[in-house]
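re: that chain from earlier
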Amino acid sequence: MITLFDNAFSPFARKVRMALEHKGLRFEAVDGLSEAGRARLAAVNPRREVPALVDGEVTVVNSSHIVAYLEHRYPERPLYPADPATR
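^ sequence. v structure.
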């Protein structure tokens, strides 16, 4: 199961949520900035910044890195056109 540490006020986390939803991937969303989620976020990202994504044994931080990881790991329903000119 994919876990996304996010926060409703983070545009960077929103980008990752949109990518996960577009790809149709099931995930658990944890508000990493809430009192209840801070300890879990700190365990996977010592900088305590959202977004952070945990996919099995892999942890990825930074929205651009997460989106690139998702595109590589789950190529179904690509986020970007295959043709570089159309990107």
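The longest strand covers residues 2-6.
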